[in-house]
Write a structure and sequence with these properties.
single chain, mainly alpha, 0% strand, elongated
Length: 98
Amino acid sequence: MYPKETRELALEALRLGFSVREAAELAGCSRRSVRTWRAKVAGPRPRKAPVYLPLERKMELVARYEAGERAADLADIRTGIRAELPGRGVGDRASGES
């Protein structure tokens, strides 16, 4: 168990935008502890929105996977699922520009 000061330092680092790994290194504690503390303070993290694809696209992806294509390549930003979904393509983050 870590002292209260360690927990507070790690949580403050997270609030400032540090990653879990960076906050743990800064505070001198484990990443697991930082994740646990974050969950207790913020509650459970929200789930990602579901992705809906037309049946034809799903069947194409299944066929490509069964033909031996790696699953990681099927969701490639430039050629896969994300590039086809509105609001999920490259450059669609904050500014809407590439």
